[in-house]
Amino acid sequence: MDHLILVKHSLPEVVPGRPAHQWLLNDEGRRRCQPLAEKLAPYQPTMIIASQEPKAAETARLAANHLDLPWEIAAGLHEHERANAPFLGREKFEAIVADFFARPDELVFGDETAAAARLRFTRAVQQALERTPAGTLAVVTHGTVLTLFVAAHNAVEPFPLWQQLDLPSFVVLSRPSLALVEVVPSIE
Q1: pLDDT for 86
Q2: Distance between CA 165 and CA 7 in Å, rounded?
Q3: CB 3.0 to 4.6 Å from 100: which of 9, 108, 113, 143, for a disulfide?
Q4: pTM of the prediction?
Q5: The 3-state secondary structure of the chain, one letter per residue
Q6: How many other C-beta atoms lie within 10 A of the C-beta of residue 22?
């Protein structure tokens, strides 16, 4: 069976004064890419496509190297646009994300509504699927947009799904239906 695997990037080096979309992986995040690749291997991906954000691109590159697969970067797969949002502690951030999912048509924080982020991400995923019409495609992306996409195609509450996804983690969807097959909340 062909699948679409949506991978949440590995663990970044959090730099409070720098926007999250510029963060790189930390040492532990790089180490976790090998076990991630090992968990992806049974699905036999034929290609990995990544968000343009450094932490996602680095996750894709390292996992692809372990699997001896081609990989590339594609536009539109980036996280919810919130470059101008201030750095928030975990508790405040989670409260805002819960509100973001609960009010998808309102600008809750950042520069993009949940509905707009979902639409942009969906278009980018559809383009990636069109370029790889058969086989299993892995897309390395980000937790919020990944969650929006999965919830839009399945009877899944977004915030609880978002909460269970570790760095890295992944969700397996069947192709072409995009029905949920499996959630792998942690690679370890």
Answers
A1: 66
A2: 10
A3: 108
A4: 0.95
A5: CCEEEEEECCCECCCCCCCHHHCCECHHHHHCHHHHHHHHHHHCEEEEEECCCHHHHHHHHHHHHHHCCCEEECCCCCCCCCCCCCCCCHHHHHHHHHHHHHCCCCCCCCCCCHHHHHHHHHHHHHHHHHHCCCCEEEEEECHHHHHHHHHHHCCCCHHHHHHHCCCCEEEEEECCCCCEEEEECCCC
A6: 12
In contact, 64 and 41? CB cutoff 8 Å: no
Place of tokens 């919130």: 82
Placement of tokens 């390395």 in the chain: 140
Fold of 3-184: Rossmann fold (3.40.50)
Are 77 and 145 a contacting pair, CB within 8 Å? Answer: yes
User: Looking at residue 188, what is its pLDDT?
Assistant: 83
User: Which residues of the chain fall short of a pLDDT of 50?
Assistant: none
Is the CB of residue 11 less than 8 Å from the CB of residue 35? Answer: no
User: How many Cα atoms within 13 Å fall on the side-chain side of residue 86?
Assistant: 3
Domain boundaries, the chain: 3-184
* Residue 144 φ then ψ, to 5°: -70, -50
Report residue 91 as tokens.
């508790």
Per-residue model confidence as pLDDT tens digits over 11-64: 999 887 788 888 999 999 999 999 999 999 999 999 999 999 999 999 999 999
